[in-house]
Design goal:
Family (chain A): Belongs to the binding-protein-dependent transport system permease family. CysTW subfamily.
Subcellular location (chain A): Cell membrane
Oligomer: heterodimer
CATH topology of chain A: MetI-like fold
Distance between the termini of chain B: 28 Å
Protein name (chain A): Spermidine/putrescine transport system permease protein PotB
Strand content of chain A: under 5%
Helix content of chain B: 10-25%
Structural class of chain B: alpha+beta
GO biological process, one term (chain A): transmembrane transport
CATH superfamily of chain A: MetI-like
Keywords (chain A): Cell membrane, Membrane, Transmembrane, Transmembrane helix, Transport
Largest interface: A-B, 24 and 25 residues
Number of helices of chain A: 13
Number of domains of chain B: 2
Number of strands of chain A: 0
Strand order of the largest sheet of chain B: 6-7-8-3-9-10
Number of domains of chain A: 1
Structural class of chain A: mainly alpha
Shape of chain A: globular
Chain lengths: 283, 366
Amino acid sequence: MTERGRKALLLAPAGIWLLVMLALPLLVVFVFSFGERGAAGGYVPAFTLEQYANLPARWTAFKNTLILAPLGTIAALVIAYPLAYFLAVRCSPKWRTSLLILVIVPFWTSILIRSYAWIFILGGRGLPALLESIGIDDIRLINTPFAVLVGIVYGYLPLMVFPIFVSLDKLDKRLLEASADLGSTPWRTFRQVTLPLSVPGIATGCMLVFILLMGEFLIPAILGGGKVFFVGNALVDLFLQSRNWAYGSAVAMTLVVVMLVTVSIYMKFISRLGGQREDVSLM
Amino acid sequence: MSVTMQTIAELRGVTKTFGNVVAAKDLNLSIGKGEFLSFLGPSGCGKTTALRMLAGFEKPTEGQVLLDGEVVNDLDAHHRPVNMVFQHYALFPHLSVFDNIAYGLRQQRPRVDKQTIATKVEQALETVRLGGFGPRRIWEMSGGQQQRVALARAIVNEPKLLLLDEPMAALDRKLRKEMQFELQNLQRQLGITFVLVTHDQEEALSMSDRICVMEGGSIVQVGSPRELYDMPRSRYVAGFVGTSNFFDATVTDSAADQITVRLASGQKVHGTPEIPIDAGQEVCVSIRPEQITLTRALPTAEIALPVTIQNRIFLGEHTEYLARNEALGDFHVLVPRQAELNEGTFNAGEQAFVSWGEGALLILEK
């Protein structure tokens, strides 16, 4: 077999998968987005821009997604970084594995069940009751943007911790000694050596969490109580409840475009942050 | 180190233990200003621990580390006027060559102005013959160049002590030789005190003013390369500094300045040991391969032993012979080119005599 033939064979399974599971459905959605809703729902072929003209009706869903997805990513980063730093740099190797497993453990249970647990914690008999007992009254947590934020940070934290942990774990600890040797205080060493060298991990973690959050629908549905909904919820509603496939397709296409634009801006920013470094390659 | 030399750093009764492991045991050493000192020994002998205590990465368990007359046991590495060239250089991969070298200057408070930093970095680059390489990325540099960057990054801060942790271990033989000369020149040119850690005797011998030989966490002998080579105190030092032939012997007579020992072959030889030795003690005698003369005719020397030539290795300017004596065993003999031309080449199986001049034989602690 020729070298090219071997390469083609290696790429074939993934290529076919992408074609059937991604490219074709995307094409279908693209075509549907110019069609019309049938009388009994579903799709009737047509060529109209009416669905796109109707997008502002779902503006709130886009707004919520575009605020809470970046906010959730940043919140997850702020919580995950110190944890990953502790695990990779400070923690004794004896404890490291057990603690890493603890980070993964939540993944063993369905996100649905874990989110339901948060309904109780944030609901009237949970935290608010606790706050009331110390004199802080009338705090409503459940079914607010805050509840959704807590839910997504909780759900996506491990996805942020791991890439950062890996990049910090790979970090040559002798560089930290070299920095100290050259007169740098521990805090400056962190800023000038540790942080820049963990940029690849931060970038990967943020990307992973952000992209997944843009399509999230379960957590807003459960913890937002229908008051805080994402584009994902709009899609569920349009495809499964009101069966307006054409309009749903237009919303979905718009989400894809928005996502591509935000991600490419983000990539530009990150590659500038990473300088012309060889080790920052994101995708 | 001459008596008048000013002391820049000192170890006073320094011991370092890691758990149950004693890495360094009661080290006493003073390092003179402007000298080139090497810690020499195999891995695990405590030389790196000694260096790391000077750098401030390890705190001594007992004893004191002094820099410029002050006890610095509790002074963190980033406060010590000491810089290190790390074994694998530990250059910052996210910074350019310029920024790597400027790193130390930029940590100084009050801040050093940009212009001064630029000038100093350029100078340092020139010193290590890397002028114009400032904007390069680290991964674009070869191993030898990275080593120079590491050197420049340290010397640019004009440290009181420059510590070098096996700096040439990652270089190939030819480059290593070149770097040895360069390091030595650099040290004279800058007048900075260099403290080198190495397991390579050749490296230590060729560059150092003084060598501190270590074994099992302790200092076994300190002296100039010549002193260590000519007057090793123990078999360990003689074996680590240069190569030698060692034979067991028993002391038969011990006088104030001369003792007599009996070789296994029955001959008695005289010598002056570096350390006090009593009659009856089991000792070890050492003869350097290049101090042995190989002849066909019985020589007139005090002691000449008959040998059979076993093997011959041509080394260019020398030929090395392996010659066996029935009673003592194998002798390594190094015959210079000229002597070989006079005496002719010996072949395996040939009978010959080994002999040596007065003072060639050293009596050592076993």
